Amino acid sequence: MTERPLSDQPSSPSPDRSDSRPRVSPAGVQRTIVLAYIVAIAMPPAGLLLAIVVARLTAGTGSRHALWIVAVSLVASLAWILIISGGALNTTNTDY
To answer: Which pTM does this prediction carry?
Structure first.
């Protein structure tokens, strides 16, 4: 029987692969949360999508950021509707 070289033999048991999500650094999660809040105000529909991303990234941690991002996005949607329907973005007079 021939022995395998040491480099071919497993040095330790393989890690548990039950968690199919990739590991994300805490700094990356925080950056995503901040981005989601900013986008929720500037572009509410995209903020709702980022809330789903945040919910998946923070699943099991007890974080309520996803719910707050949804709330901010809904309030911002109403504000944008009022701004646009009020005519604040119309340029009616260009005389200076």
So the answer is: 0.69
